[in-house]
Write a structure and sequence with these properties.
38% of the residues lie in helices and 19% in strands. The protein is α/β, with parallel strands linked by helices. The protein has a domain of 220 residues: NAD(P)-binding Rossmann-like Domain (Rossmann fold), CATH 3.40.50.720. It has a seven-stranded parallel β-sheet with strand order 4-2-1-5-6-8-13, with helices on both faces. Strand 1, helix 1 and strand 2 form a beta-alpha-beta unit. The longest helix is centred in the C-terminal third of the chain and has 20 residues. The chain is globular, with a radius of gyration of 19 Å.
């Protein structure tokens, strides 16, 4: 990418968006516009040498403001969170369709050169995810459509919008289906956190409070793959700069059960806990894993950071946040920096 081109990141106040902006800065990009609905002080990461805008992208005029003079747009803006949030906020998740639709319109109006959309593995047909053996989901498995109710359907619809804007208006669009992204600078409490962060927090709490117990949502045998944030950001740039026009998986193929995920975090924390299974809690599909055949074919690359390696870094970061809060601080994940 050219360092002088204006790069716009909707959703920059979130976990993946903040890491993406940090990476753009590290690559020497000098013109970055970061956009998020949250007040600036609530962003996960914020950089003083970036144009930071607090805008509600559900409003069309704000999308046009965000897209003005942009060369590339990396659209990561959406209402989302872990399974607990997704299952209890279906209408809110569906409303994200306004953001992507209006950002696409603004991109065409402002003659944006390239547009990236962050989709999700939640688009995949639920009938193909009934086994606990973590079926490898290939891109064709999104059809016939039976996506995750709410969030998954919005993502699938928005994928189609990207396709039709490419076909009808000539807009350069790229779409990646994320599989469970985790790592430092992510949400770790409050209800929107995902499984790796939630388990790290629960293990830390159990170790510090001496109760030696942990609540696990579901039976613990449901399976997933988890992609470390560095692999996610690397994949975003590779896909944006590729010839891949159709949606493609961006996820680790290292599947584990929730029980195995807890095993790893317990080992990192050097503790063993009694497990209490909450069978009434949201737990999603039984099994899901990323089939990386296509991404390896097209890019000669796939997410490769081992789960244990990523969890060690994530656990250490959440531990520090937890202790900061215990010591009377906010335990905030938000920081401001101008360092390159």
């Amino acid at each position: 990418m050219q360092n002088e081109n204006l790069i716009v990141v909707p959703g920059a106040g979130g976990f993946i968006g903040g890491n993406l902006v940090a990476s753009l800065r590290a690559q020497g990009c000098r013109r970055i516009r970061a956009v998020d609905i949250k007040p600036l002080e609530e962003w996960h990461q914020r950089f003083d040498d970036v144009e930071n805008l607090s805008l509600d992208l559900n409003i069309k005029e704000n999308c046009e403001t965000a897209a003005k003079s942009a060369h590339d747009i990396y659209n990561l803006a959406a209402n989302m969170g872990g399974m607990g949030f997704i299952e209890n906020n279906k209408a809110l998740c569906m409303l994200s369709v306004l953001i992507n639709t209006q950002m696409l319109q603004a991109a065409v109006k402002n003659e944006v050169k390239r547009y990236f959309f962050s989709s999700s593995a939640c688009v995949y047909n639920a009938d193909k995810q009934k086994t606990f053996a973590a079926p490898l989901l290939k891109e064709d498995d999104a059809y016939p459509a039976l996506a995750e109710d709410g969030y998954g359907w919005e993502k699938l619809f928005s994928e189609r919008m990207c396709r039709h804007f490419r076909e009808d208006f000539g807009l350069y669009t790229r779409v990646a289906r994320f599989h469970n992204v985790y790592g430092p600078w992510g949400t770790w409490d409050g209800g929107r956190e995902k499984a790796p962060a939630a388990i790290c927090r629960k293990v830390i709490a159990a170790k510090l409070n001496g109760k030696r117990e942990i609540e696990i949502w579901g039976t613990g045998v449901q399976t997933r793959s988890f992609m470390y944030i560095d692999d996610c950001v690397r994949g975003i740039f590779l896909i944006m700069n590729s010839d891949i026009e159709e949606p493609i998986n961006l996820g680790s193929s290292e599947a584990v059960s929730v029980n195995e995920l807890v095993d790893i975090v317990e080992d990192i924390a050097e503790i063993k806990l009694k497990r209490n299974y909450n069978l009434n809690a949201p737990n999603g599909v039984n099994g899901r894993n990323s089939d990386n055949t296509l991404i390896k074919k097209y890019l000669k690359w796939e997410p490769h950071i081992p789960l244990r390696t990523g969890l060690e870094k994530t656990y250490a970061w959440i531990y520090n946040q937890f202790m900061a809060r215990q010591d009377g601080g906010s335990g905030s994940i938000r920081r401001a920096s101008t360092a390159r």
